[in-house]
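Ticket #4471: structure export looks truncated?
Reporter: QA, pipeline team
Priority: medium

Steps to reproduce: submit the single chain below to the structure queue and open the exported record.
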Amino acid sequence: MQSPQKQVENILKPLDLTDDHYRKVMLLMHNDIEKGLSPATHEKANIKCFPTYVRAVPDGTESGDFLALDLGGTNFRVLLINLNGQEVKMESKIFIIPQHIMLGSGVQLFDHIADCIFKFMSDHKLQDRNLPLGFTFSFPCRQEGLDKAILTTWTKGFKCEGVEGNDIVKLLHDAIERRGDMQNVKCLAVINDTVGALMSCAHSDRQCAVGLILGTGTNACYIESLEEVKTWDGDFREPKQVLINTEWGAFGNDGCLEFILTDFDRSIDKHSINPGKQIYEKMISGMYMGEIARLAIERLRKHNLLFDGEGSYHLATRGRFYTKYVSEIEGDDVDSFKVTKQIFDELELSTYNEQDCRLVRHVCSLVSKRAAYLASAGIACLLNKMDRKLVTVGVDGSLYRFHPFFHDLMMEKTKDLTRSDISFKLMLSHDGSGKGAALVAAVANRLLEESRLEENESKNSVLEKDE
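Actual output as written to the record:
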């Protein structure tokens, strides 16, 4: 009969991946990204690699006042952002989106948004100002231009009819027009939160070329040269590059990650609201990490390797072992295990000793390490593909922000997996969805003015020749 230690090892071994596993993940991801960037394979690709039409990062000359909108859930924010070189001043107000509007018509939703913008502008005496606007809209969209995004599906409890399949910027402009008292507000850019994270960091660090979200979900965007983007349908003027929204959470939907999936992952997928979808995301993000840990802890308990085999209603309940517990247990003092014991009490576990605390901590660290290393494999894949010698990765999201070791784990493994001639750093993004949206609008505004100047100059030179 196997010793208890051997039994523990056998149960947890599938969570402990090798560098060979991570290198294979990188290779598969690289192939999938290539498929997403090619019109022949885009439709079938898991990693869609949507061009965002954002062509440039801030160059530090952006200045003036900009409005930003941030809609990603029940809270809707309107922000006034003043840019002056590296100085950024922000004022914002949060408006609630009531349940009846979340489930009502698209017209009601965008009329409500327009009302909120008007209230905010009145409070800040901005009615007579001409303000470019950036809109962070954190729902799955297919971009058809910098200021044109088609909502593909509602998520996060929204179900407004008449919005899916339509351009959200047009719906916003229609609502503004219906009011008739805000004709000077024009949305120049619509972005998602990954682009926001990248732009927000790029404002103070010009080397920022990757945006990463590690929160409830996970996604990444990166700067790609236009010749690599075979799906590109825009112009080929300078800068010959575009930010690509990978939507990498769907990596593995075709079964290519089967070689690293554990029984715990399969159980999570089976009981999720979207079985067979977002496989990579389910192994990494905050929405699922606590549940992976719970399933592993429960299996150990059922084999009498934890808590003397005694469980509790809470520990047996799906979703009840929160991801914040994983962070708190790993950050706990290993001499006293004070926080860990508090969590066990919350879960109404009656039988536990120091050995149990150590083993649960070990489970949590395996789950976090695998998540951080899988995210690192994704980032290393992007860094190797971009082939820039120096890159900053702008990161946002509660998992990265609050987990005690996520940053260090990612630095270590990304370095192992990235080519030795590439240097990188991970930078925490501050308010990407607000500041980032304003910066995209500011850059778009700057590029518009530059192209107007170019047009005028070429018109003038034509006129001079005629004369």
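Status: closed, not a bug. The export was complete when the record was re-opened. Leaving a note from the reviewer for reference: Residues 432-466 form the longest helix (35 residues).
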